[in-house]
Amino acid sequence: MSDALTRRVEIAPATAADVPLVHGLMHGLAVYEKLEPVFVATESDLADALFGPRPAVEAFLGWLDGRAVGYALVFTTYSTFAGKRCMWLEDLFVEPAARGHGVGKALLVRLAQVSVERGYARLEWNVLDWNAPAIGFYKSLGAVPMDEWTTMRLAGDSLRRVAAQP
Q1: Which of 8, 47, 80, 122 minimizes the number of CB atoms within 10 Å of its CB?
Q2: Domain of residue 78, residue span
Q3: Taking the CB of residue 158, how many other CB atoms lie within 10 A of it?
Q4: Are 55 and 90 in contact (CB under 8 A)?
Q5: DSSP H or E segment with residue 117
Q6: 108: Cα separation from own chain's centroid
C-alpha cells in the first residue's frame, strides 16, 4: 500500500484552543520565507484577531494523521465591480516535511467550498515571485496570475507620515 493511501488529511476551522498551533505554523511560514526577523505577532494578537470582539480573520488547520501541519488564514474583502464579498487568503503554509500529501490542496479546496457556500465572487491571494513550487501548484489548480496588478503598501514611517497629513 502506498504512503499516500495510508495518510489521513483533515481540514477544520481553528478553535480558540488551536491558537498556539496556528501561531507556531505562522512562525514556520516566517522562517520559510526568510522573514523571521519581522515576525512579531504574538499568540495574544492572533487570539484577538481570530476570536476577539471584532474578529478580523478566520483560520483553518490542515491535519495529517492527527497532527496540525498546515494552516490557511483568510479574511473577507469586497469587490465593487462584482458587487459581492470575496475571500482573501493571507497565508497558506504546510510544513516542508508534510508537503506532497495533499494538505495544501485540501486547504484550498475547503476555502473554495466556503467561498462558494457564502456566495463570494472569488478567492484571491499573493504569492512571492521566487516561490516557483507554490506558483506551479496554484496554476495546477487553475489559478491564474494577475500580472497587471502591483501590490502597494504603506507601513511604518510612511504610513505615519501619510496619516499625519491634514
Answers
A1: 80
A2: 3-163
A3: 10
A4: no
A5: helix 103-117
A6: 9
